[in-house]
């Protein structure tokens, strides 16, 4: 599915992150290299403490690497200031967390419109874009509901809509299904999958192989380093052949 | 699951002949359980012996048709009602392999686990993609729904089984790490787990590098 | 610009919904801001409604007339007046020697242009009989029913008088007299009877006790009757309401002024001439009292200070609520950050919380003020004693008040906003707790302010002796201390080591979470500091005034004196004294009268004169003795000589304390000496022997006699005095007995027995009673006595010596209570916040089996710790300015005392001023001990020991 000719949406180069110093020094990340291309969903797996979440926060500019570079849409974000990072999050990066993703004071549509409004777009236009994004993901009926009037799965789906509103096409999802039951989690992932198929790029941290299996590529982290990764190869399965015959 | 009950379940929908039963069986189980016609006919004759099916005429092409009897229906119902028998666990090659790998000289157990895990997850990815297709099919095709749902269930069973394997691997890994660190605390050993872990880390980096290059190969 | 606007809109939306979601907290802050706003806007509405437009004012004074003509009492000489007709001065130059100021009435009617419609409006007073007794009442003769007078009086009931035996009365008069419409009314010493035909009110003066009669129906016959009884007739002043087509322009007014008549013209008031066209303002020596810009600025500064301090206090109280709001919605703010909210956006969201509450508070406060003022208008009018001109709403002023509310809301939220925006998105999202580094700039600014304020105060106190500088400097320093609170709170943490477990936990928690503790402590600090400063200052002032207190009479003694109407009511007054008060010794006193017995003591009125006690020239104080050329005699002496002379016996003037008796001369028998506490046996003997008992050495001449000059022609005496000639008048001389030593005679300088006075041919008039009591009269007795006196309708000068009375007590108590309430409120808010923060810990505690009371104990100590910190800091911060102010005052008074001595002012007193500094121990004890203790107990009592178990963890 990935097309290497295209410029990656996210590139991590030799990324290192050290928490603390001296005796309490912890190497959360050790020299990570990673590219995420448009249309690609990458799952990051690993035991707890392997650096999964740190990777995600640094990729989104919420934390700074100790060394190395992060390119989002070709821009080195480690060189940006606080304001620049905030602007980047408004325009290029969408986050989806495990739960309570939505601002309780805002309706679904307003939540989705928030990054656009913060960016200074007029309220009407932002709402229009938000409604369009919701409708595209079949969530139009939720537009005027407040978060506490929605189920967990609906909230996560609205959060995905928010992550991709406007020109944003990089979703960073941190255990997006962690608080959901299996069936609901699947519907959220299938939405994420379809958004990536439609051209977005996504990184998802998860510890559930069943959800990681939705990804095009699964990256295994251990002790802050990439130890292995899988590619989904179309020719690798008997089943596929059989299915193709049907 | 037994072929016996599978055939009974198919016959309940109406009389069928042997190779027809084979095709339907495979389409229901998504080709994950290949049968040969001999197996089908052997099973049918045993069922006939036990009074659960009877030969009931022929179709236009002259194939002998089999139909389910009342005692066959009773057997089928009781099969649906009873849980699958787990008294004799299947011997799993992977479990035996890992058990052998522990303590084997020159083998990094973590590498063994990781390569198995990559394989497992890759399989899951494939199953999941098929499942995504199946999901779309279920939504679209109303008339063939019954078959599609059966196919979906089989796929999901495979996914969950594979997942169980992946989780078991995770568990093995963390247990082995914990055991090795207690061993380290117990006393100095020539091959210290730290060194093993470090070596494993660099090894994995190298492996990851190869994977990257592999992926970029056109 | 639009970008900024759009992102603010999103922020306001979040803040608005949040305010709605957390109604309890929002309501608390809203009430805190809205209440003062309600008060201020209601005040503004009331003041503005009570303020009359010139047209309304004219309707109330002129009715439908065009002008009011009033005699300037300048004998018809030309005058200059101001456009409103309120002030005037003779046009000519009367200041040069030899010219005497014009005086006397003129015939106003001659100045009224022909063809005008004229109404007379006459005023006098009469003693009217009421249901309870007599009431001194204003009588106004005006044809009130005439269309020209319409608007001056408002009819409430019945009708205005139509016949000569009818009278209308103000509602207030009916209330206090106990009469009603239809009752009959008589006046004392007047045989006519009137029927009350109706009641009315004066819209601009609802409290006036007034009756209205037709012109000529009351005052003239009444004056005649009174005169016949030998009493001074009431003075009647008459003005004229004039209606003429075209009205009176400023030019016409000036023409009429030339005849000595003042004109209040509607035309002129509605359209006043430029100042340059008003000759009065152009006169050299004219001082325009209205333009006292200095007092305006001072008042404005005071108002600004009060408003500023109130806003600060509200901000400090509301701040923590916003802080806890921001903290509770940390996850939400983190999400905004993750979605690209920059720090400015986070700040905007928290600030919007303040904006939303501020706007809501402004709306609520102002709308409530409008409703209340409108609904309570009749009560307000009664309370202010005048009808509103209309319900006046000044939108700009209300807008300014609303802006104040919004500003307060924003200021309250500003520090929480900055704090919230400084947290990293990651910390907000993960909800990590920890000690947040407090702002280091604010304490530094505070420290600077303390230094600056202290320097100014010190300069004011030591160098310039100006108390304004001291209090201003103290205020600045005080604000500095408020700003330093976070740092000071940190210092308290070190004291925690020696405390037992629970208070130590509470203290540590308070110190670790300065963000919420500091504003609450600062709020307490500010309130306590103010209270302590005022209490310490007031207590010191009290101590000083107690030390300086001079009794009017011996303790428990009293005097009831009447000078009106020749002492006609004196027997009744004496009787009332005897009947209602616990009298021990009663001395009946009389005074010397010159001329007719009905005259007042100052020689005013026809056929009246006065007397004076002669000081022999040899005994006159050289600093005061008249010189032939009229120059100041004190000029001849140096400072040292003046200082010496003030100690001279001739120059000891009587100071103002004691009862007020004309010339210090009282006609009375020996009981008076007893009441005054003069136990010199010689004095009583001398009095009985017909001698004059003197308490003032200078009045006794070298022959041992005191002379009393009877001046029967005051005008001749004035002329003689102007020319420095001997004053004409018969001098009667009495052998005197000078009381040895200098016993306090309480204002009485000479006592003469009635027999001796009669023998010498002096006319005496009863004055009243001076009495001692066997115990201090109770309040009930005093009220009864007052009621008896009120029945007489006389002007009785009543003195009852009760010793020194603390007048500040109630104010101090109110202040202490206020400070206590603020303390408990602030500490309560801080405790609520601490509880919210500690919820997780408390749940853990409960889970591991801590007994439920732990929650109570902890919250009690948390509340107590905040209150105690604020109270300790506040007491220290408040006491010092009070001390500084007192020291400065002491220096100021000492300096003016020395200056007075140099000048030879003899009434500077014998002792140097004593300016003590007193610690208000009771107030301090209440604030330092009782208030924190009460706050702690209250918090412990109000805390649920069970605790809410199900709470959504992330919100």
UniProtKB/TrEMBL annotation, chain A:
GO CC terms: membrane protein complex; plasma membrane
Keyword line: ATP-binding, Nucleotide-binding, Transport
CDD domains linked: ABC_MJ0796_LolCDE_FtsE
Domain spans labelled ABC transporter: 10-243
Domain of life: Bacteria
GO MF annotation list: ATP binding; ATP hydrolysis activity; transmembrane transporter activity
InterPro entries listed in its UniProt record: AAA+_ATPase, ABC_transporter-like_ATP-bd, ABC_transporter-like_CS, ABC_transpr_LolD-like, MacB-like_ATP-bd, P-loop_NTPase
The protein's name in its UniProt record: Putative ABC transporter ATP-binding protein
Species: Streptomyces griseoaurantiacus M045
Automatic annotation (TrEMBL), chain B:
Full protein name: PadR family transcriptional regulator
PANTHER family, A to Z: NEGATIVE TRANSCRIPTION REGULATOR PADR (PTHR43252:SF6), TRANSCRIPTIONAL REGULATOR YQJI (PTHR43252)
Lineage: Bacteria, Bacillati, Actinomycetota, Actinomycetes, Kitasatosporales
SUPFAM superfamilies: Winged helix' DNA-binding domain
Species name: Streptomyces griseoaurantiacus M045
Pfam families: PadR, Vir_act_alpha_C
Spans annotated as Disordered: 183-218
InterPro entries: Tscrpt_reg_PadR_C, Tscrpt_reg_PadR_N, WH-like_DNA-bd_sf, WH_DNA-bd_sf
Composition skew (Low complexity), residue ranges: 183-211
Residue span, Transcription regulator PadR C-terminal domain: 91-176
Transcription regulator PadR N-terminal domain ranges (all copies): 7-77
């Amino acid at each position: 599915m990935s097309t290497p000719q295209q410029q990656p949406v996210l590139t991590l180069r030799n990324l290192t992150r050290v928490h603390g110093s001296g005796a309490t020094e912890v190497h959360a990340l050790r020299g990570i290299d990673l590219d995420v291309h448009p249309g690609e969903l990458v799952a990051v797996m690993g035991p707890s403490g392997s650096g999964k979440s740190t990777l995600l926060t640094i990729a989104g500019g919420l934390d700074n690497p100790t060394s190395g570079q992060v390119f989002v849409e070709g821009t080195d974000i480690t060189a940006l200031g606080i304001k620049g990072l905030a602007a980047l999050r408004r325009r290029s990066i969408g986050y989806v967390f495990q739960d309570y993703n939505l601002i309780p004071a805002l309706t679904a549509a307003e939540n989705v419109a928030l990054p656009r409004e913060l960016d200074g777009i007029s309220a009407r236009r932002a709402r229009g874009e938000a409604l369009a994004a919701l409708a595209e993901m079949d969530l139009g009926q939720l537009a005027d509901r407040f978060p506490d009037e929605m189920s967990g799965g609906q909230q996560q789906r609205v959060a995905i809509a928010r992550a991709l509103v406007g020109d944003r096409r990089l979703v960073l999802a941190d255990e997006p299904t962690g608080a959901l039951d299996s069936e609901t989690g699947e519907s959220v992932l299938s939405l994420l999958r379809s958004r990536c198929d439609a051209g977005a790029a996504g990184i998802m941290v998860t510890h559930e192989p069943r959800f990681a299996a939705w990804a095009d590529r699964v990256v295994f982290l251990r002790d802050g380093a990439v130890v292995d990764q899988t590619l989904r190869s179309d020719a690798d399965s008997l089943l596929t052949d059989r299915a193709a015959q049907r | 699951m037994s072929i016996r009950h599978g055939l009974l379940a198919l016959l309940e929908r109406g009389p069928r002949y042997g190779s027809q039963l084979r095709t339907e069986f495979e389409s229901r189980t998504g080709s994950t359980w290949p049968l040969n016609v001999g197996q089908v006919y052997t099973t049918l004759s045993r069922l006939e012996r036990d009074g659960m099916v009877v030969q009931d005429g022929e179709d236009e092409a002259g194939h002998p048709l089999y139909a389910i009897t009342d005692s066959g229906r009773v057997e089928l119902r009781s099969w649906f009602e009873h849980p699958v028998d787990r008294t004799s666990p299947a011997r799993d090659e992977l479990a035996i392999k890992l058990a052998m790998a522990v303590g084997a000289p020159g083998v990094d157990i973590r590498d063994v686990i990781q390569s198995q895990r990559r394989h497992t997850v890759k399989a899951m990815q494939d199953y999941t993609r098929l499942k995504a297709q199946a999901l779309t099919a279920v939504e679209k095709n109303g008339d063939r729904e019954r078959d599609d749902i059966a196919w979906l269930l089989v796929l999901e069973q495979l996914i969950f089984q594979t997942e169980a394997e992946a989780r078991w691997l995770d568990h093995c890994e963390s247990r082995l790490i914990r055991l090795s660190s207690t061993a380290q605390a117990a006393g100095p050993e020539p091959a210290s787990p730290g060194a093993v872990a470090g070596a494993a880390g660099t090894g994995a980096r190298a492996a990851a590098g190869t994977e990257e290059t592999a992926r970029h190969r056109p | 610009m639009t970008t900024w606007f759009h992102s603010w809109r999103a922020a306001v939306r979040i803040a608005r919904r949040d305010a709605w979601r957390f109604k309890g907290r929002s309501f608390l802050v809203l009430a805190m801001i809205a209440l003062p706003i309600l008060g201020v806007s209601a005040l503004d509405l009331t003041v503005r409604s009570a303020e009359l437009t010139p047209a309304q004012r004219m309707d109330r004074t002129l009715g439908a007339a065009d002008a009011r003509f009033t005699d300037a009492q300048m004998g018809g000489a030309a005058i200059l007046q101001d456009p409103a007709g309120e002030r005037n001065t003779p046009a000519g130059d009367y200041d040069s020697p030899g010219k005497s100021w014009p005086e006397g009435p003129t015939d106003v009617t001659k100045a009224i242009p022909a063809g005008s419609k004229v109404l007379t409006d006459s005023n006098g007073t009469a003693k009217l009989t009421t249901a309870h007794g007599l009431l001194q009442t204003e009588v106004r003769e005006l044809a009130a029913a005439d269309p020209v007078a319409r608007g001056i009086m408002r009819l409430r009931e019945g009708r205005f008088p139509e016949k000569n035996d009818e009278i209308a009365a103000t509602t207030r008069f009916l209330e206090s007299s106990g009469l009603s419409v239809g009752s009959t009314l008589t006046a004392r010493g007047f045989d006519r009877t009137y029927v009350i035909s109706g009641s009315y009110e004066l819209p601009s003066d609802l409290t006036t006790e007034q009756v209205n009669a037709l012109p000529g129906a009351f005052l003239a016959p009444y004056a005649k009757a009174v005169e016949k009884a030998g009493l001074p007739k009431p003075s009647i002043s008459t003005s004229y309401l004039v209606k003429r087509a075209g009205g009176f322009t400023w030019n016409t007014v000036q023409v009429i002024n030339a005849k000595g008549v003042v004109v209040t013209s509607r035309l002129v008031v509605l359209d006043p001439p430029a100042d340059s066209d008003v000759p009065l303002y152009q006169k050299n020596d004219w001082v325009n009292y209205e333009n006292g810009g200095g007092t305006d600025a001072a008042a404005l500064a005071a108002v600004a200070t009060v408003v500023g301090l109130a806003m600060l206090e509200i901000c400090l109280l509301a701040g923590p609520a916003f802080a806890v709001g921001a903290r509770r919605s940390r996850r939400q703010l983190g999400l905004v950050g993750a979605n690209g909210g920059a720090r400015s956006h986070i700040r905007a969201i928290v600030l919007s919380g303040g904006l939303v509450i501020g706007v809501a508070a402004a709306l609520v406060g102002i709308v409530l003020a409008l409703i209340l003022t409108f609904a309570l208008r009749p009560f307000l009018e009664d309370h202010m004693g005048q009808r509103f001109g209309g319900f006046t709403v000044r939108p700009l002023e209300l807008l300014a008040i609303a802006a104040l509310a919004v500003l307060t809301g924003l200021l309250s939220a500003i520090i929480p906003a900055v704090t919230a925006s400084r947290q990293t998105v990651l910390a907000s999202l993960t909800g990590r707790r920890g000690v947040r580094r407090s702002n280091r700039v604010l304490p530094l600014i505070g420290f600077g302010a303390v230094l600056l304020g202290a320097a100014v105060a010190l300069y004011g106190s030591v160098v310039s002796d100006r108390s304004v500088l001291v209090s201003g400097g103290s205020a600045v320093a005080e604000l500095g201390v408020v700003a330093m609170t976070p740092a000071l709170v940190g210092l308290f943490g070190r004291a925690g080591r020696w405390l037992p477990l629970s208070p130590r936990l509470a203290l540590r928690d308070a110190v670790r979470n300065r963000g919420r503790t500091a504003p609450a402590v600062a709020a307490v600090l500010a309130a306590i500091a103010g209270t302590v400063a005022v209490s310490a200052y007031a207590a010191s002032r009290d101590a000083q005034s107690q030390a300086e207190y001079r009794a009017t009479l011996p303790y428990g003694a009293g005097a009831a004196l009447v000078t009106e109407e020749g002492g006609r009511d004196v027997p009744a007054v004496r009787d009332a004294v005897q009947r209602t008060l616990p009298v021990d010794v009663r001395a009946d006193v009389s005074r010397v009268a010159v001329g007719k017995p009905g005259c007042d003591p100052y020689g005013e009125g026809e056929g009246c004169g006065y007397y004076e006690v002669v000081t022999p020239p040899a005994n006159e104080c050289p600093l005061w003795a008249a010189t032939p050329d009229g120059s100041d005699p004190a000029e001849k002496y140096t400072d040292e000589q003046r200082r010496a002379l003030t100690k001279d016996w001739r120059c000891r003037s009587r100071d103002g304390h004691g009862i007020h008796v004309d010339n210090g001369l009282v006609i009375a028998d020996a009981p008076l000496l007893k009441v005054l506490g003069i136990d010199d046996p010689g004095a009583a003997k001398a009095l009985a022997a017909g001698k004059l008992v003197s308490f003032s050495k200078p009045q006794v001449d070298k022959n041992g006699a005191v002379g009393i000059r009877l001046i029967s022609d005051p005008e001749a005496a004035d002329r003689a005095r102007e020319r420095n000639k001997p004053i004409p008048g018969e001098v009667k001389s009495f052998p005197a007995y000078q009381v040895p030593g200098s016993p306090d005679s309480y204002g009485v300088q000479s006592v003469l027995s009635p027999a001796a006075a009669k023998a010498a041919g002096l006319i005496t008039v009863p004055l009243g009673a001076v009495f001692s009591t066997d115990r201090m009269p109770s309040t009930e007795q005093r009220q009864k006595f007052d009621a008896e006196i009120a029945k007489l309708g006389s002007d009785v000068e009543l003195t009852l010596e009760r010793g020194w009375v603390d007048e500040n007590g109630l104010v101090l108590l109110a202040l202490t209570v206020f400070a206590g309430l603020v303390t408990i409120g602030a500490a309560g808010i801080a405790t609520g916040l601490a509880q919210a923060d500690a919820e997780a810990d408390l749940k853990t505690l409960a889970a591991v089996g801590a007994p439920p009371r732990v929650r109570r104990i902890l919250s009690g100590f948390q509340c107590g710790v905040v209150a105690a910190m604020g109270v300790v800091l506040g007491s220290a911060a408040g006491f010092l300015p009070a001390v500084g102010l007192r020291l400065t005052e002491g220096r100021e008074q000492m300096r003016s005392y020395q200056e007075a001595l140099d000048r030879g002012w003899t009434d500077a007193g014998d002792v140097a001023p004593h300016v003590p500094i007193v610690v208000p121990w009771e107030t301090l004890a209440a604030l330092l001990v009782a208030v924190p203790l009460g706050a702690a107990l209250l918090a412990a009592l109000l805390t649920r020991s069970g605790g809410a178990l199900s709470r959504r963890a992330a919100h």
